[in-house]
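Reviewers asked in the last cycle whether our approach scales beyond single polypeptides. To address this, we selected a multi-component target totalling 589 residues and predicted its structure end to end. The input consisted of the following lines:
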Amino acid sequence: MFEQQQRRLEGQIRALLEEAGVPLPEQLNFTDLPFKGTWGFALPMFPLAAAERRSGKPVRVPQRAQELAEYVAQHLQLPEGFQRVEAVKGYLNLYLDPGYFSRFVVDRVIEEGPRYGHHPPRGQRVMVEFSQPNTHKALHVGHLRGTILGDVVARMLQAAGYEVIRANYLGDIGLHVIKWLWNYIKFHNGEEPPPGVDKARWVSDLYVEANKRLEEHPEWEAEVRELFLRWDRGDPELRALWEKTRQWSLEGFEHIYRTLNITFDRVYYESEVEESGKRFVQELIEKGIAQDQRPDGPVVVDLDRLLGLEETYRAFVVLRSDGTSLYSTKDLALAVQKFQEYPDLARSIYVVDIRQSLYLQQIFKTLEVAGYPWADRLYHLAYEVVTLPGNVVLKTREGEVIFLDELIREAIQRARQIVEEKNPALDPETKEQVARAVALGSLKYTMLARENNRKVVFTWEKALSFEGVAAPYIQYAHVRARSILRKAGDQVPQALTPTHTLHPAEVELISQIARLPEKVLQAAEAYRPLTLTTHAYEMARAFNDFYKECPVLQAEPPVRDFRLRLVAAARQALANILALLNIEAPDVM
RNA sequence: GCCCCCGUAGCUCAGUGGAUAGAGCGUCUGCCUGCGGAGCAGGAGGUCGCGGGUUCGAGUCCCGCCGGGGGCUCCA
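The resulting structure, written as structure tokens, was:
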């Protein structure tokens, strides 16, 4: 937000140092002042002193850095808006005049409104593929992480100025679906989910059953393989059954996405790239990239051999020995199709769990070897999995899962109790809305407030606790701000420069609000929602401290007017960052 | 065997190469006749896994160990 001011200062500092004969680096890097309740930048002078020493001057770096800082501090003409300058321990500290710049920040936030924190379009398009559930299975907590992560990454990239295509890729065909169909035909033919029973759940239970049966009777595997071949021949009856049953799952997905407030611009289905995938593999064989070992073995791309490497990309299986498709068969074709539809994609991001790192590298490398110029624009955004305590991985196949719909239901139920306890006066409808906002917000925040490549261990206790660094803390700050504004009649005073000496809590709040745009950029570039969850907490904390320390409505008119505007700006900033995290900002709770 | 990820307070985790390593939970102590206490303030609690290296400066970068997890020919 202060690039302009920094650039002007940098010009002056460079001139001063040049005059003194100090060799200058290409860039001077400012940092924020590390002292709470202060506002400004610091310039470490160590790199300059170090450069001098490297050029042969016998100086002691820390000492020389301090000398340089003092020299600059003494001769610097502070531009308007700067309060003071000091040289401490080799740092040049530049303090902003909070009165002067607070108006700058507050005015901008109020003027930009919901756009504050967003950046201008950069004319680049990216695709984010995420969620990727399989039909005929249920969604569980594990899916929640990738789904929320992808959604928020898409939101952040959009805020950073990219045009984003939000894509989903549904696993509606594959061995798991064939297994399900086999079990259905053999043991449940003609059945439908009973009325009143959750269809997706009913479908999922049959999947668990199918795996159990096959485990107990391995001899039935042959029937499953036979069914897969029947599928491949395009058997109309089988296809009709598939279409009907897959719909039961799709309805379940639909419902969850609506609950999570997540939408997609383009939904791909594995079934739609199955045939093109096989053709693609055939081309690979003809080009000599893939080796056809059928009927004794699968079709394989031996990447290490092709690239003259050892034990790096390994060999990559792209088609079964019986000619049926694999995940890889379809993923190759899908990548091609994406770039046919959107040739100008600057990046195609795959939000997929970290266990598939090698697999995706194999996909990318195969496409590179096949000569696709966009292969280097494919990017795997890897995230660690959600486990149960004791490093127990969730497995739909064995039915050892926390179902997503169940988790959401429980979380809302728990939130209802807490709303009842904290704010019994609310009307029932509002209570319900608040419970949903708090419950869903908490689940999302928990999934996002962790480094992408670190595990999340799921426990009911933690999932249903809304305390500490969590969504409700931030939502509560928003509610408090909203409450003050409501009491002021929702009238935000005209823009004004504060005439009072700002309280440290005010300074801290303003400087946190001012950081939002750069945090958004930082988060988007690293695909890291954690940057934003942390900043959301920092802003909320600064607001709660301000709330405690600085009376607004009872203050004298000029102070009151400025603080009302500050509250309005803080509320807006909190609402905006919550929106980026796809978390609701309630008015009451 | 090869490759990838993770080791920071009792627990769960933050920490663009920069100043005295910070939060939450738990624990101990305070603060509601000032705008909503789902809040605020304070105490106790650290050889940042170990050993080298790079650097003016390393929790952060590089190398090697140790410990935990994951992946590596027909699951997705």
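The domain at 130-273+338-393 of chain A is CATH 3.40.50.620 (Rossmann fold). We regard this as preliminary and will revisit it once experimental data from Aim 1 are available.
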